């Protein structure tokens, strides 16, 4: 069925139950369906918009709720830098970079774990890193 002139098709993904519960909660707070939430977050990620790693972590504590939380990548980066600097103590530039990029590093390793578990990549010590798992 199509409401906007474009044919739609189903996409299925498998996530841990806790992740789905977080997504459902966030979708409810945004007053959208789970499908709309997932579609929006995928498109936001593809547009290089940052997506908080855990609902309720950064923006929700400040009293924000929902769609107004989306900002451009540059603004979100500036906001994260300001959050780190709010401790009041001087922050070394390398520590600042580490604090701001820590979430991305965690997401990369989580994705690698998922890809390894699904048999799409493997860690090959002889090759010195990850490679595509072509079944050989």
Give descriptors for this structure.
single chain; 136 residues; mainly alpha; 4 helices
Describe this structure in words.
- There is one protein chain.
- By secondary structure, this protein is mainly alpha-helical.
- It has two domains: 13-67, no CATH class; 71-120, no CATH class.
- The chain is 48% helix and 6% strand.
- It contains four helices and two strands, in the order ααααββ.
- It has a two-stranded antiparallel ribbon with strand order 1-2.
- Helix 1 crosses helix 2 (34-46).
- The radius of gyration is 18 Å and the shape is flat.
- It starts with 16 loop residues before the first helix and ends with a strand.
- Mean pLDDT is 74; it is low at 57-72.
Topology:
Blueprint: H1 17-30, H2 34-46, H3 73-85, H4 93-117, E1 121-124, E2 129-132
Rough outline = flat
Our count of helices gives: 4
Structural class: mainly alpha
Query: How much helix is in the residues?
Result: 40-55%
Low-confidence region ranges: 57-72
Brief synopsis:
This protein is mainly alpha-helical and 136 residues long. The protein is 48% helix and 6% strand.
């Amino acid at each position: 069925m199509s409401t906007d002139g474009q044919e739609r098709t189903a996409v299925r993904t498998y996530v841990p139950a806790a992740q789905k519960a977080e997504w459902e909660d966030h979708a409810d707070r945004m007053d959208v369906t789970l499908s709309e939430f997932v579609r929006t977050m995928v498109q936001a990620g593809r547009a290089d918009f940052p997506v908080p790693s855990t609902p309720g972590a950064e923006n929700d504590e400040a009293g924000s709720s929902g769609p107004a939380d989306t900002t451009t990548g540059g603004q979100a980066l500036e906001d994260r830098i300001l959050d780190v600097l709010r401790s009041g103590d001087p922050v070394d530039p390398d520590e600042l970079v580490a604090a701001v990029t820590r979430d991305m590093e965690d997401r990369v390793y989580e994705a690698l774990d998922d890809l390894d578990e699904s048999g799409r990549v493997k860690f090959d010590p002889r090759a010195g890193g990850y490679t595509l798992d072509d079944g050989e």
